[in-house]
Design goal:
GO biological process, one term: transmembrane transport
Number of helices: 14
CATH superfamily: MetI-like
CATH topology: MetI-like fold
Strand content: under 5%
Subcellular location: Cell membrane
Oligomer: single chain
Number of domains: 1
Helix content: 55-70%
Pfam family, one: OppC_N
Radius of gyration: 26 Å
Domain ABC transmembrane type-1: 112-312
CATH architecture: Orthogonal Bundle
Structural class: mainly alpha
Membrane topology: Multi-pass membrane protein
Order of helices and strands: HHHHHEEHHHHHHHHH
Distance between the termini: 51 Å
Amino acid sequence: MDTQIPKGASARPEFKETVAKTTWQRWAQSDIWHSYKSSPVIIVSSLTFAVLVLGAIFSPLLSPYTPFDPSSLNLMNGFTKPMTANEFTGDYFLLGTDDQGRDVLSTILFGLRISLFVGVVAVLFAMTLGVVLGLLSGYVGGWIDGVIMRIADIQMTFPSIMVAMLLYGIGKGLIPPDLRDEMAIWVLIISIGLSEWVQFARTVRGATLVERQKEYVQAGHLIGLTRWSIMLRHILPNVTGPILVIATISLALAIIAEATLSFLGVGAPKTQPSLGTLINVGRQYILSGEWWILLFPSLTLLALALSVNLFGDWLRDVLNPKLR
């Protein structure tokens, strides 16, 4: 005799339990989360990066002083040592002050904001340019592939920092003198982006050469999809893994490139100083005993670049199926 199942009851409770799993439960059981929580180095590096990013975003709220407002500066606070109160004004500074009496902690938070902004936007620009050119080169082929890859080969023969410096100099020369300080950050972003697109293009081209031979691309041709539709809607999602890895590692390289250019005096202007600019300022006083002006911005840059690099290396390993 058949048993009638009551209305609303489920004949397969195990199936209902599987469906009821939330996105977080599926993520908690994934290999990526297991690899993350089992690596203390990655946890520390990601937390360090998160703290630095939050400090940069909320720098106007977290900074104890407004370091780049001339009306708030007091030259009597100049060269105050860390964790001491100035003997003339009585003001306390956790990380000391520079030659103009600016709080070093506040300058680091604001400089960190510029460095991260330049690095992130430059990587987004390089990624967009490299992905588009890589898709065209790998999918269309022919003379387009030859031209793009020869340009990439020529650019790879030069150090990226040299290419960025050259492009920055050309860009500054094309801008009217009265607009150079205002446009310096954007010229810096474009220069770094144009020096970092090659890795994206070469990686996406190689992946596209493999993907275009698969059946789903041939099916797209049969139903009349355009080339751009196949490249952007079907091939691109299948090559996002390598793109994310390169973007993470390129972020650290872009931050270091920006700091290098600013340290050499050809990057961020003094009115919008980055970590590189602050390091350049501190270098001038290292021999006279004011070590903290150089040390703390340098440690911040080191922590930022190292945390991004470690996270990028972990992401590369965890997304590589051959290493699982």
